[in-house]
Amino acid sequence: MKKAILFEKLEGSLVKCLACSWYCKIASKQLGICATRFNEKGSLYSLVYGYVIGPHLDPVEKKPLYHFYPGEKLLSFGTVGCNFGCLFCQNWEMSNLVKNLKLKVKNLKKEIFSFIQSMSQKIIPKEIVEMAVESGAKGIAYTYNEPAIFIEFAYDCMKLAKKRGLKNVFVSNGFESKECFDYIKDYLDAINIDLKSFRSEFYQKICLATIEPVKENIKKYFKAGIETEVTTLVIPGYNDNNEELTAIAKFLKEISTDIPWHVSAFYPAYKMTDVEPTPYETLLKAYEIGKKVGLNYVYVGNVYDPERSSTFCPKCGQLLIERLGYKVEVVGLTKEEVCKKCGKKIYGAY
Question: Angle at CA 130, nearest 5°, toward 129 and 133?
Fold first, then answer.
């Protein structure tokens, strides 16, 4: 447990957490929505600082990031807790068990912290960075749950990582606060943001969240020069109709035709085990919608599709990066990050 940086003192012992766009106002001896940020006598503490789940090496493509050092590995880790409550969460044991426990126990600090310890590995930022260096990783991925809830620990890791020549990557629900964005923007190299739907009702009912901060943050990260990619998990009967997929694609195009859009297959999980996996044909439809709208880079994910997971030059069609699952080969890019055939500059970092 360590005192948080991103919070504001209010009247009495009340505090306002500044880590994400909920801006939770937390009374003394209480927790925020994420169930990991605790008010102790008018000061906010992170219960997950130094307590991680993982960590291990992942291909950068698994985040998914397809325009950020293809074929490299990232040391990936997360923590307990989350500021969303997605009914389809693949990592629900990490993200939501602690939130469920919060409703059942009396001594929040003692029992929640004990649960976090039982789920986690205790580690300091220096050890995370050394682990990344020794494993040959290109960088560190803050992933599996929302990095904003452990932002102080992430920040301390990120600063040390930069000094050692490592890259920093977030896999995020895009709900960071303005204060959080300003806190980490100079240390963050890439981010994949889930745009889970384009409807407020979906976010409210299925994710227990709101959509507007996510849309604003996609714009903000891209404008800041942080390599930005977006993923939409396509869920049958929930966000797979033509109108919604088209709206997402058009929104991204308005920011930039270069933003990579990953349309990924859903598989039953957590509280949505009664929903069928995404048909392959639906993913193809989403892919075609993205291309028709005018996005340069659209990818099909969570299924084996070498053609639609490979990268082609949007100008001349030259194969640039071939992906066969996690076997990746850069074949059509120069060291200057342009297409070998036509010279077009390709978005990303290589």
Answer: 90
